[in-house]
């Protein structure tokens, strides 16, 4: 006899409910597993598409920053050809994968003597970009009858035989044991090369807005040590100065004295001593 006001469901309803609960939980678990498998398969399918689908092969190669080298020379140096799949050339490293960079191609381009830095990257979906920074010639060094063109960091860009390279000045006072084209000089005087480049830059800046042009009369630059350098003007006047002390002022003042105070046939030394006025000592 049931108590009044109470309701007990039939036994069949209870059994049905008991059976359906685990079945619905099982379906949810299966759906969850299918979602996980799908998420895991997506990267695999994407990789397969990138590696083997023809639409991702290289259709164009862009080159930026080339000046000394032609764009075609840069493309050939990279080793990348139209119709290849660039995604297969990606290294398994974070910088390569995250930036879609072709590191082997970068190394190949940087082997060119005048290339300072190269960046090669995939432009999705089927282009490759190449961006280069070239080394700029600064001065030349005489060596056993030849002339080494170097940049501001002492990297040898080329070797000339017979006559020095045009548009550059000779630098003395750089002792080195050996050299290789495209590599930095084997020397402890790399700092002297940088000082020489600073002097060259100051001369060019001085001539930019001036009626007097110093560059054509500079014969050579000699970096003696960290605080002493010399220059020859017109094979007549040797200027001695500190390349680390008010360099631009020194170059401007030396030019003014040479063109306005020293006669065209006079020879001697122009001395810049720290804390004193410059003095000309005739030969």
Automatic annotation (TrEMBL):
Keyword vocabulary terms for this entry: Cell cycle, Cell division, Cell membrane, Membrane, Transmembrane, Transmembrane helix
Coiled coil feature spans: none
InterPro entries: FtsQ_DivIB, POTRA, POTRA_FtsQ_type
Main location: membrane
Ranges annotated as spanning the membrane: 33-52
Residue ranges of every copy of the POTRA domain listed in the record: 56-135
Signal peptide start and end residues: none
One GO cellular component term noted in the UniProt record for this chain: plasma membrane
Localization of this protein: Membrane
The keyword Lipoprotein belongs to this UniProt entry's keyword annotation: no
PANTHER family xrefs: CELL DIVISION PROTEIN DIVIB, CELL DIVISION PROTEIN FTSQ
Protein known as: Cell division protein FtsQ
Record organism: Thermoclostridium caenicola
